[in-house]
Amino acid sequence: MTGRRAIWLVTMRELRERLRSKAFRFSAALTVVLVLALILLPVVFDGRPATFELGLVGSGNEAVVEGVEKLVEIENGDGALVITSFADEDSARVSLEAGAVEAVLVDGSRIVVESVGVISESDLERMLQESAASVRIESLLADPESAEILELISSRPLAVESLTGTEESENESRALVAYAGLVLMYVAVLTYGTWTLTGVTEEKSSRVVEVLLATLEPRHLLAGKVLGIGLLGLGQFVFTITVALVGVQMTGQLDLPELPIDSMVMLVIWFILGFALYSLGFGAAGALATRSEDAQSTAAPFTILAVAGFFASFSVLGDPDGPVALITTYLPPTAPFVVPLRFALKAMPWWEVGLSIVVAIVSLLLLLRFGARVYAGGLLKTGARVRWRDAFSDSHL
Amino acid sequence: MLELSHLRKSYGTVQALADVSLTAARGRMLGFLGPNGAGKTTTMRAVFGLLRLDGGEVRWEGKEVGKADRLRFGYMPEQRGLYPRMRLEEQLTYIGQLHGQSRVVARDLSMAWLERLGLTDRRNDDLESLSHGNQQRIQLAAALVHSPELVVLDEPFSGLDPMGVETMSMILRESTRSGSAVIFSSHQLDLVEDLCDDVAIVNAGRVVLAGEVRALKDGSAVRVLEVETDAGTMLPAELARYEAESDGSWHRLVVSAETDFSGLLTSIAAAGGIRHLSYSTPSLSHLFREAVK
Question: Buried b vs exposed e over B179-208: b needs ≥16 C-beta within 10 Å?
Fold first, then answer.
């Protein structure tokens, strides 16, 4: 039997059996439902007009409130500003704490809020600030045109261009695509890697692997398994993403940015490389465990590497040309998480992209040999957990 | 013919195979015996290239065994050895394909086996939903689905009820009749004695006794004499020294094959009150106990 036919047989079995399994069907259906929910729920909630509850205390609030009303009208056509006046600051604070109002304007000079937002100020707070700024500017001018000033303050009058010559929105969408891809890859590596892991352990504990290895080379069995689960995973991802895109189109929920083709291609290449690298590792780890409980711990080194790679990509996002970015580009476990991001951010010349792909492919081939050897050595050792070194040195390959 | 010559294998300081040599001929059934840990499973795995031998050679029809030869072998490992959650027909078809059959042919062979085992209506059930005996039948079918020239089975009879033993025996006999070499390991010595043409007994990684069952028995240095007498009848004193086992009226005597049989008969007849008398070559169990002592 040729190697190709052997791999094909194993691949087809994986596809057939997993497609048939209830667990797979359930999780695939659940994923689609969750994705659709994420797309559709905001539509349902966005249907409701925004309401801002503002409390007032003291005097001199009129000009600021007038500005806020205008801003609400400009920004949220059907939004509403609900104003409650309080006799004194204490009662306003009580109401604020109870959540009846979102912010309290005191004497046109101070705002009291329940807590200062960590990430950014609330919309109401911002509108109050902008309105107050416009009131101040008005008072400085001889011929105030309050509406214009207000609009000016709330707008961003300068166009932004970056050195690379692209517009901000395109760069943003490149980074967005790359980052979304990384999150998907991370999830895929861990989800489908676990399938490979437990699949291998099951074959070992049911001893079916002895029958398989009597006719198959271990590397063909390992490669076929990774390929089968990989194809299934890729299929599920493409299906889920298609459903998501169709959902987005139909609801008109998001203005999808123009998807940059080169970033997408890079993402797919690294998705495949990263997936294959980790799956081979998980496959070898699975051969060392006798029971599925042990499998999690024999696979721990790869799980940790995946998490490390994922976190390395955060650092790269902040500094795509820095030393961390450079090193992690050429380390096989981190490269799949780092290269697509750096590429999307245009922080990589083509030769670096090429070199990193070559490094990844070479390490993939080495890992296939090493993994198959550990796999073959570990699969027939039952009883306790097998150590990496023992499996490697005692392998019959 | 399968020939194993001087197989050696150690795991660290543990010597699994010290020196295993044996042959299994086509059209014959070989019982592979030995205490637990004697090296039976390791030897069988060596036939399928599942471990790296430290020394020795495995030959089939005179040539060193390679992957292509193993496609014409069938193997049933100890315990399970199939996917618990895979449908019967699909499972047998897959095994057939792994042994080089096309999908269509493999499916036909699988269906034929399922019909033969009376499991056609369960072809789309998972293996684990079957009773223990039926699971074992399917495992046998998996080892035989591609009509292998050599069949190796590790403990195929363990845990089978008498009906299961009967089915398994019948199928193995047929396999032998059709010209395959069949090897199986077992602890059920009476069964092996009934079923096998040849035996090989391993102990501590060495073959300690091998050959044709009948020849081994005939060639034994002892004979077994079983006598049952009326209650109260004593065996003559000159026989009592051969006694191996007794419950008062039933006696098992182990005598040298050289002993004059008619002289023995005369002494026993003189005692009188004989209800049952048998004189035979030793059983396989006897040979086994002697060999691994």
Answer: ebbbbbbbebbebbbebbbbbbbbbebbbb
- Give the Cβ contact number of residue B284 at 10 Å: 24
d(CA B136, CA B133): 5
Distance, CA of B115 to CA of B88 (rounded, Å): 12
Residues from chain A that touch B80, judged by Cβ atoms under 8 A, are 206-208
pTM to 2 decimals? 0.77
> Mind listing the pLDDT tens digit for each residue in B227-262?
888 877 777 777 777 777 888 788 888 888 888 888
CB B231 within 8 A of CB B222: no
A82-125 pLDDT tens trace: 888 888 888 888 888 888 888 888 888 888 887 765 555 677 88
Are A21 and B85 an interchain contact pair (Cβ–Cβ within 8 Å)? yes
Report the run of H or E that residue A68 belongs to, with start and end: helix A62-75
Find the helix packing angle between A261-288 and A350-379, rounded to 10°: 20
Q: Are B206 and B32 in contact (CB under 8 A)?
A: no
Looking at beta carbons, which residues of chain A come within 8 Å of B73? 214
CB contact under 8 A, A396 and B52: yes
> What is the DSSP-derived secondary structure letter of residue B127?
G
pLDDT tens string B145-162: 999 999 999 999 988 889
